[in-house]
Automatic annotation (TrEMBL), chains A, B:
Protein name: TetR family transcriptional regulator
Pfam name, any one: TetR_C_6
UniProt keyword annotations, A-Z: DNA-binding, Repressor, Transcription, Transcription regulation
GO MF, any single term: DNA-binding transcription factor activity
DNA-binding region of this protein: 40-59
Species lineage: Bacteria, Bacillati, Actinomycetota, Actinomycetes, Micrococcales
Length: 206, 206
DNA sequence: GTCTATACATGGATAGAC
DNA sequence: GTCTATCCATGTATAGAC
C-alpha cells in the first residue's frame, strides 16, 4: 500500500522478505522429495540454517508454509518458456511440457502434493480442486475458440477434451518421474494433434 | 506346500489367515484415506480391534503391511466387470473404468500411493515402476495387434499411445476424486476412439 | 529475530508376562 | 496370540530469555 515501489528502507524488512523466500525455497525442495506429510519443519530449517522454532517465526504453522509453497509453485509454473505473447494453444502447451522437463523439482512437487490432496484433512486439497476447475475452464474456452476457427476436429467435446488434456499431462508426469524414458511432450503433442487441426493446415493463405 | 487343498485343520491356521485378511482390509482403508505416511498402525489396529503390537505380530513392520495392501490391490483390480473372456481391448478398458467408479476406495488408494511413490525412500516405489512398465508393454502389445487388424489409426505410435492411455487414466482419476462430475469412462473412450477404429466399423461382414 | 528449553502428541518397534 | 509396558525417535508448537 504505502511505498512498495520505493525500496527506501533496506533494513530489516528487506532481510525478512529474503528470509521468507529462502524458507519457501527450502520447503519447496523438502515437500517435493518427501511430500507434505513426510517432510518436516526440521528438514526445512536445516537447509536454511535456522532453528526449527525460528522458522515458525516466519510461518506460524506447517500449513502456512504449504500455502506459501503452493503459491510459489504457481509463480514458477507461470514462468514458462514463452512470455505472455499468445502464440498458439497447442504450441504453448507442448513447449511448456518440454520446458518442464528441465525443472523436475517442480513436477515432483506437483505430483506428490496432488496425490496427497485426495487424502482426508489435507490443507492443500482446496488448492488442487480450484486448480483443476480453473484449468478445465481455461482449456475448454481455448478449444471452443479453436472450434470457431474450424480447427477443432469434429465430434470433440471441449469440456471432456479439456479434462483429458489435464489428465494426460498429470499422468504422464507420474510416469516420467518413475521412468525418464517416457516422452512427456511427445505424448501430449500426439493427443493434441488428435483433437486439434494444426495451425498451418487451415490458414487463409500460404 | 503340504496339504493346502485339504483344509483339514480348521484350527488356528484358518483363524490366523482370516486375521491377516482383515488386517489388510483395514490397512487398505487407512492408507487409502490418509496415505502410507499419513496412516498409522494404530489406526489400522483400532479398526481390527487389536492392539498395535498384536498387529505387528502378523506384519513385522509397516512396510510389510504396505506390500500386502499393494498385492490386495492387484487382486481387486483384476476382479473386473468381465471375467477372462477377451472381448475387445477398447471395450474392456472402458468397462473397467466405468466399473471402477463403483469402488472409489480402490482408486483413492491407488492415486494416493502413486503420488507418494515418487518420494525418496518410499517402500512402494518399485511396485509402481514395475506396474507402469508392465502396463505400457501390455497396452503396446494390444495396440500392435490392433494395427495388424488394420484398426489402429494411421500415425499412431503404439508405445506412446500406451503411455498415454495409462497417463490419461491415472490423471482422470485424480480429477474425479476431487470432483465426481468428471466423467472418467467418457474421457477414456474419447481418447481410445481417437487412436482405434471401432470394432464394428471394419468387420468382415455385417 | 533468534535461540534454548520444553511441552505434548504420535510414530514404529521391542521385551516379556500371560 | 495377545496383551501391557516401554523405548526411543520424531513431529509440531509454545514459552520465554537474550
Amino acid at each position: 500500500m504505502s511505498n512498495v515501489d520505493t525500496p527506501r528502507r533496506r533494513g530489516p524488512y528487506a532481510k525478512s522478505a529474503e528470509r521468507r523466500r529462502s524458507i519457501v525455497d527450502a520447503a519447496f525442495e523438502v515437500f517435493a522429495s518427501r511430500g507434505y506429510r513426510g517432510g518436516s519443519l526440521q528438514d526445512v530449517a536445516d537447509r536454511v540454517g535456522l532453528s526449527q522454532t525460528s522458522l515458525l517465526h516466519y510461518f506460524p504453522s506447517k500449513r502456512d508454509l504449504l500455502v506459501a509453497v503452493l503459491n510459489k509453485r504457481d509463480a514458477e509454473a507461470d514462468t514458462g518458456p514463452i512470455g505472455q505473447g499468445h502464440v498458439d494453444f497447442e504450441t504453448t502447451l507442448v513447449e511448456q511440457a518440454r520446458y518442464n522437463e528441465g525443472i523436475p523439482g517442480l513436477i515432483e512437487l506437483y505430483s506428490v502434493l496432488c496425490g496427497e490432496a485426495v487424502t482426508t484433512d489435507y490443507p492443500g486439497r482446496d488448492y488442487f480442486v480450484a486448480r483443476f476447475a480453473r484449468l478445465r475452464e481455461e482449456y475448454s474456452a481455448e478449444l471452443i475458440q479453436l472450434r470457431e476457427q474450424g480447427r477443432l476436429r469434429p465430434g470433440v467435446d471441449p469440456e471432456r477434451a479439456a479434462s483429458s488434456i489435464v489428465a494426460l499431462w498429470d499422468g504422464i508426469q507420474l510416469q516420467w518421474l518413475l521412468d525418464p524414458n517416457v516422452d512427456m511432450a511427445a505424448c501430449l503433442k500426439d493427443f493434441l494433434d488428435s483433437i486439434i487441426v494444426p495451425a498451418d493446415a487451415t490458414p487463409t493463405a500460404s
